[in-house]
Amino acid sequence: xxxxxxxxxxxEEKKMFVGPHSEETKRKISKTQKGNKYCIGxxxxxxxxxxxxxxxxxxxxPEDIKDKIRIAVSGKxxxxxxxxxxxxxxxKIRQSKIGKQHSKETKRKMxxxxxxxxxxxxxxxxxxxxxxxxxxxxxxxxxxxxxxxxCQFCGCFAKTVHHINYNKKDTRDRNLITLxxxxxxxxxxxRKKWEHFYTILNHLRGV
Length: 207
Known about the structure:
It contains nine helices and two strands, in the order αααααααββαα. By secondary structure, the protein is mainly α. It is elongated and about 70 Å long.
């Protein structure tokens, strides 16, 4: 998909849209930038970055524009579709992250953003609720042994005991299931879907 194939309502919408360039457009851009000393290795100053950041604060793209962007960079339209990072690239990315930490201010903003009511995973603070006194190490060990220390989704070694209906006070055996860290985290999104899935799974297992 190229820019010309996407309908726009106004010139402003077209300016706001960021989509993949055609090969011909990429070639023209590359040609115009050859020998441009102002673009090679150029880095923005902190002052310039701050100005750009301030200029964009409070601005929101219309939902229809977001949908166009999403479609234009999804699947086969994405420039990285079907490609993979080389081990060398992976190592470079890993090295660039070592030692980097978010500032306290950034951490605070991230925390506040997650706790907002419009966050799709926000459940009114349920994750902060205490577990039942009956949810003991002995009970968790019993469930792990029952499930043979395997994630009941992927079959890998696992120790996390998950509450299927997300009620931390419901410690019935049929409401508990062993999952690996990855699939326990996955179950925290689209909760209705995963509650139904693991409820049926335990039922089929005769739990």
